[in-house]
From TrEMBL:
<dbReference type="InterPro" id="IPR003737">
    <property type="entry name" value="GlcNAc_PI_deacetylase-related"/>
</dbReference>
<dbReference type="InterPro" id="IPR024078">
    <property type="entry name" value="LmbE-like_dom_sf"/>
</dbReference>
<dbReference type="Pfam" id="PF02585">
    <property type="entry name" value="PIG-L"/>
</dbReference>
<dbReference type="GO" id="GO:0016811">
    <property type="term" value="F:hydrolase activity, acting on carbon-nitrogen (but not peptide) bonds, in linear amides"/>
</dbReference>
<protein>
    <submittedName>
        <fullName>N-acetylglucosaminyl deacetylase, LmbE family</fullName>
    </submittedName>
</protein>
Amino acid sequence: MIFDGSNTVLVIGAHPDDEVLGAGGTMAKHAACGDEVHVLIVTEGTTHQYSDTDLIEEKQSHTRACADVLGATGVHFGELPDMRLDTVAHVDINDTIETVCAEIEPDIVYTHSRREVNQDHVDVHDSTLVATRPSSGVSTVIAYETPSSTDYAVNTDGFTPSLFVDISEYIDRKITAFTEYETEVREFPHPRSPDALRAIATTRGAASGVAAAEAFDILRSYR
């Protein structure tokens, strides 16, 4: 079982808020079970969307506040260019993830699905698979879905979850943590709204026989 208090967990997101949107309830569950939870945000998450580069520090502050709510003990920032990872050498993205993996030695890594409309997410997915190759010591690699990206993707075979995590006890904490990202919260029916996040969790829960769940695709698991 992956929730046994013996694991170091790393949740990788391309941008600030990806981690909580995709795996916030599962992060809280890991932390509550005694696992050590870390977050890596690969880009600075600001310069493409906003002209004020001072928002980088604000976004990092939001990430730390979100992590505190979820019980994550470590927050790491790659500070690569937002929405421009396709201009960054693949080896540099690999190195950003490999550096954190070497530092914390995670057992379980969560990352983006490749079935995404956001190219940064796809690049992070690809580099995660390099950084967590069999020789890395990582035992399990899992992909999460990202509202307003995974669900917007076309010309793919779709996100097909192979793992559902019961977050019935943690859905409220996930939503509270997400609202720490003041600049990212949208009004319903946008997928990045509190009501939509609850609806997604309810739908995933109904598909797996619980009140609320997060859905994942197991990419690699070594036993």
